Amino acid sequence: MDLLQQCFHGMSFDLFVIQTLNGIVTGMILALVASGLTLIFGIMDVVNFAHGELFMLGAYMGVLVLATTGSFWLALILATLIVGLIGAALQITTLRPLIGRDPLTTILATFGISLILQNYALWQFGPVARKIQEPYTGHFNLFYLEYPWYRLVIAGLSAAIIGGFWMFLKYGKYGIWIRATTQDRVMAQAMGIPVPWVHTAAFAIGAGMAAASGVLFGPLVGVNHIMGLDWVLKAFIVVVVGGMGNLGGSIAAAILISLLEAYASMLGCISPAQAVIVSFVVLVLTLLFRPTGLFVPTPK
Amino acid sequence: MSATAAATEIQNTPLIGVEDLHTFYGKSHILHGISLKVGAGEVVGLLGRNGVGKSTTLKTIMGLVRPSQGRVVYQGYPITSMAPHKLARMGIAYVPEDRRIFRLLTVMENLRTGLDRGNVTDARKRELLDKVFTYFPVLAERRDQAGGTLSGGEQQMLAIARAMMLEPKIILLDEPTEGLMPRMVSQISEIIGALHREGVAILLVEQNVPLTLAASQRVYIMEKGEVRHHALASELKVGDPVIQQYLGI
């Protein structure tokens, strides 16, 4: 009884609303990171262990561009494009030669890239966290809190980027190429689709989306060389829970897991830092009972 | 005109020439030196029992399998082991045995994979679509339906229609009537005829001997990864000893 009391101590409707909002904001960023990861896995069967470092690299690019130009929006756009190009270069030099080999080789390769990028960032920028100034500093009143507008902007922008990406996949010529290649690489080639370049483009898009999330998230916590680690771990959980390679599933899983974590951190019996346990519980349960993913239609 | 005479005639200008092709899957030797030719606009049948290397021959021509020896020549240029997407852009279309429809793409999107090629004008795209929708009205009805929801026969039609989007000079057609109802089979054989009249060459792999003999001008008969017999289709009949010997019917 004591434990229960301790757990639900301090719970209120206000807190619930605030945590729902927090969960959605983190969920949207996580969805943006995970969309790129699941795109890359779906099309190339490559588990990209360097995805967190592309997120980190995006944030640092944001810092640099912001320092030179003073414009947050320019920083967001340029960081996305530059990291997209870096992603394309990484894919061509490192992953393209490994296509068709044992998946372990691509795991090791992307893990190697992640270590190189992390240590490069440490060397270049040092261990002290940098700051990205948010473009909006206003607040609005939410019960007893001053809730920053910028958080809602993050959620909106992430949703817009994901929505744009979705439209591109659905209606764009190259979107159809990406979907066709994801479904049947061999037949896509036989239909004249330049599959090696579709792979490169998909990796570049995934990298650019990770970079965009890095810039958007930068103002909330500061930018350092290991900021990608937490995100990539959570993004992996999201991709597995949502169903490997399933974009819609990843988005739903990102929001579900972030909401659950936000609610768990309201409980008085676990500290907010321990709320991350919830993600792992969801992961384990998914793997036990529905290993193809929560949001994948049951195969007929 | 004998088969050899016919072969000599197209020898000067074969659309596709396969010369002494050897292909391995791992350690198993599948093709033991296949040579064959297809002339422009010609329908050529490739007969043989299961597992003699008919499909592998098509895959090797399409660049999906690398031969260890021998070469493929297309319009006079060596294309051995070229990337399949380049061959597709050069006018070689492939309709695989298992059809390989993009199951989650709609019928229209399946067709667009071959249609969105850059230098095709919108007017030309409409013409090509109109043409396949005339041949296969059912595809027009189901244009917004996912490829995976079509019946086997409809998927075969879609596979052929999708190949036609490439405006190919030759279609490598692998067992198009396998597992289809008789009504569908006759529809497929009509399409082969229509493509032939349009001047599209076809290399047709089939188990259906009467259909192959009716649709083709020449046939090659394969056994154990080699061409064993080559004849004009008009010179062969279903009950012929050579057919019985190599095909067991």
What attributes characterize this protein structure?
heterodimer; A: 300 residues; mainly alpha; 2 strands; B: 249 residues; Rossmann fold; 6-stranded mixed beta sheet; 10 helices; 10 strands; 26% strand
Structural description of this entry:
The complex is a heterodimer of chains A (300) and B (249). Chain A is mostly helical. Chain A has a domain at 28-228. Chain A has 12 helices and 2 strands; from the N terminus they run αααααββααααααα. In chain A, strands 1-2 form a two-stranded antiparallel sheet. In chain A, α2 (13-44) runs antiparallel to α11 (247-264), α6 (149-171) runs antiparallel to α9 and α11 packs across α12. The longest helix of chain A has 32 residues, at 13-44. With 249 residues, chain B is an alpha/beta fold. Chain B has a single domain (3-247), classed as P-loop containing nucleotide triphosphate hydrolases (Rossmann fold), CATH 3.40.50. Helices cover 39% and strands 26% of the residues of chain B. Chain B has helices spanning 3-11, 54-61, 84-90, 107-115, 122-135, 137-141, 152-164, 182-198, 209-215, 241-247; strands at residues 14-25, 28-39, 43-47, 69-74, 77-78, 92-95, 170-174, 201-205, 218-223, 226-232. In chain B, β4 and β5 form a beta hairpin. The longest helix of chain B is centred in the last third of the chain and has 17 residues, at 182-198. The A-B interface holds A 173, 176-177, 179-180, 183-184, 186-196 and B 62, 64, 83-85, 88-89, 93-94, 96, 100, 102-105, 109, 112-114, 116-117, 162, 166.
